[in-house]
Amino acid sequence: METKINRQWRLATRPTGLIKELNFEWHEEPVPSPGKDEILVRNLYLSLDPANRAWVREAKAYATPVAIGEVMRGIAIGVVEQSHHGDFQAGDIVKGVLGWQDYALTDDTALTKLPTLPIPLSAYFGVFGIIGPAAYFGLLEIGKPKAGETVVVSAAAGAVGSLVGQIAKIKGCRVVGIAGTDEKCRWMTEELGFDAAINYKTEPVHKRLKTHCPNGIDVFFDNVGGAILDDVLSLINVRARIAICGFISQYNAVEPEPGPYNFRNILAQRTRIEGFIIFDYIDRYNEAYEALGGWLAEGKIQYRVDVIDGLENAPSGINKLFDGSNNGKLIVKVSEEPFSNAAG
Amino acid sequence: METKINRQWRLATRPTGLIKELNFEWHEEPVPSPGKDEILVRNLYLSLDPANRAWVREAKAYATPVAIGEVMRGIAIGVVEQSHHGDFQAGDIVKGVLGWQDYALTDDTALTKLPTLPIPLSAYFGVFGIIGPAAYFGLLEIGKPKAGETVVVSAAAGAVGSLVGQIAKIKGCRVVGIAGTDEKCRWMTEELGFDAAINYKTEPVHKRLKTHCPNGIDVFFDNVGGAILDDVLSLINVRARIAICGFISQYNAVEPEPGPYNFRNILAQRTRIEGFIIFDYIDRYNEAYEALGGWLAEGKIQYRVDVIDGLENAPSGINKLFDGSNNGKLIVKVSEEPFSNAAG
Prior knowledge:
By secondary structure, chain A is an alpha/beta fold. Chain A contains ten helices and 15 strands.
């Protein structure tokens, strides 16, 4: 019998600044066999997320850090190859924390069987994963935008940001997106219906925000932190709401960076700043999926997926999140889908 | 007829850092006579507040800056000496923005006639002024403490902070106060019933907070900002609430200071930070006065007043707010009360 090989990226050293390939060790070992109640999954797609960077820090953030020598943690969609578990059978499409590897041996902890809907599998990393609920609840429950208000979104061409802006448009708001390439800016204004877009790499953000937000800023959905948060804070209206979804500008910081210089403005403007983590809304995901599914069907929202080919390119590919070169939800194609009609 | 003199402190230059006496010009002029619909008030007590420092900045915060040459803005309680206004008569005790001077000529804009309650007049600067509602609404509406939770207060021996801590105790919380002298710390723990107090000038704040808040921090009522906010942010529990009432550590800053280094913690801990300004609750002050009046009558809350004698000492006295040497609500006695039984 031919021995199948399981290729893995294991954490070798903790990165300083950007993740480098040498922070990982490429490891090959035979594919394991499932024991009692275990399931063997072949990974199809791996999701690359800012959270991956947080997981390889020394310090515990909201998840235990990946240990040195451990297979890199990552969320993946796969197909069950062998199952000794009553709830799963070969051929099931599943999603879970399956790691940066070809095959994962797992029990059913946090393994979800995906329904067979007429949508690409990659959508389960996006609108129907945690991206959709993050945009939906972060904007609507924390930002609480009212029709006619001005909503600013950072990392606005990203998976979460692009949904946030589109939902804000559906709610009748003026929407200004901030992103890092002209192509992304064009996509936002020409395809997604944003009122304005700012390329933070080539344009003076504060000045452009002033122009594009003539009535000030009521809601800021922030994925970035740092200088952009500071620019926004100087232009917030009384009782503005700032939903903090991420600090992508800071995840690679070697030295701790200070909070925003305009932080004091929250007093004069009675601003509410609130951090949120999407897992807090896990009981309500279906509420978001229903709304988003409806808008998708009506053609009111769009999303895009940026596929990196091959597990071997995961460590270098993840930095596309941080240099802003990804166009849409960033995923790695690990192996071929079993069904030709569900291409990611 | 003897000409009565009106002594005034007028703003001469904008202070850099702490307010200095030379930022003001001592001016003497005859007491003016009230015209049609005008009221002449003799000031009795002047309230010294962190807001005074904000008002002499160049930049508009939430009030127009005091102009150079203008009488320094200040809230005072006085007695009506002469009135050509139907709603006021000689002898009325009033409160308003009457300025750093012996006599103020005013129309009725924002002039409040004080009721004759059996409380010292100075209480109208404190519990029954804006101090009481600030503590009441800031803690209860923004901090939303639940019985059993841990509440930390900065500038905790101050006029607002000391009420906040006492209200939190009434609500069944563990209360830790931070102040700048051992005497203040003793007052909080021995007289006001706080569970613990930290002298930030002599003790390591972060370490002591860890000891005194074994279950973490659920609510922070912050009057100070800066390093103390940073220390608290590193110890907040999931879904902590931070009510930002002031940034007294920053009001004299010459260079803009950055926001808290631990700002990022608000994401992992889903923290809500909210600035508030007491004037937003003006329609609900009576709600606070009723509750506070009841607790005062039951002996459940205490407050103290620090009286500086003489208008001439206002510019030097105000810095007691910033070096923490005041013990209680800081006021200046400008002239004698007309009634011997209502001594401040």
